[in-house]
Amino acid sequence: MPTLIPTLTLTSTDATSDTLNFSVIDTLTTTAPNVNLSQIVVDTTGANNIIVAANDNKQTWVYIKHTGTTDGSTVTTAHCDIEITGDVAVGTLKPGEFCWFPFCGNGSSKGVQLQAVGSSVQMEYAYWTKA
Amino acid sequence: MATTTASITLSSQDILSNAISISSSSTLYHDNTTATGLTQFKSGRVNVYVTGGSFDLIPALASEEASSTNSYVYICNKDTTATNYVTISIYNEVIGKLYAGDWMFIPWEQNDPVGDNGSDNDIEVEAFVGGPQTIEWMVFTESTATILDASGD
Fold it and tell me: Which residues of A touch B106 (CB under 8 A)?
């Protein structure tokens, strides 16, 4: 089975008295379907921008990044909400930010969608399914 | 003001015909600005037992529920039995399962993930198998209020 290795590093020299230099690594065994790194222009209607199709209990890992542009070149400050289909927000990504989280439909046929706030933004995303 | 940076790398030698390596780095900013200075930070490590119910891992604070402050959350399941997992929820909406060794990093707005400015935006954890499972977490926030629950006595 293909393996994906996600690594997170958090650093700061002044967030705490002791320097923060923290890393965590995981090893994930994946299977189809996977969607490797993709770009999408997200509009302000979440239902138009479903990046993980609704499912009942399929465990996936989702990566999403705000490119900071509307089209790859035009800079924007617009945010983008990350939502479970049905408009339940997980959080908001601002220009340049990324997130990584596990997702499962939890038996209720839910997916993941993106919804720009105010004006369209270009987002990157990918997801991989747990084997 | 404190500057905190988050970086992620996603790599694989065998998901595609060619190896992949996706990297991104982001400074953690205040809401709607590029101002640094997430001056408050909390972290913890808890054992989560199977009880048939969920627990508030990172409660939304009353002082934050009507504001637009920005936070970032890291959660990791430190368990070592591959089939063990916990669910992570926001506002009783299950986001996904963190299996042993898995981690997540998300932006989190305590005020409005469900659009109601309610008091129900806690990040919750529930164990279903095995256990107890050890969960580590961190939260970085720009809040200018005390990020503790008010004492009731």
Answer: 82, 90-91, 99-101
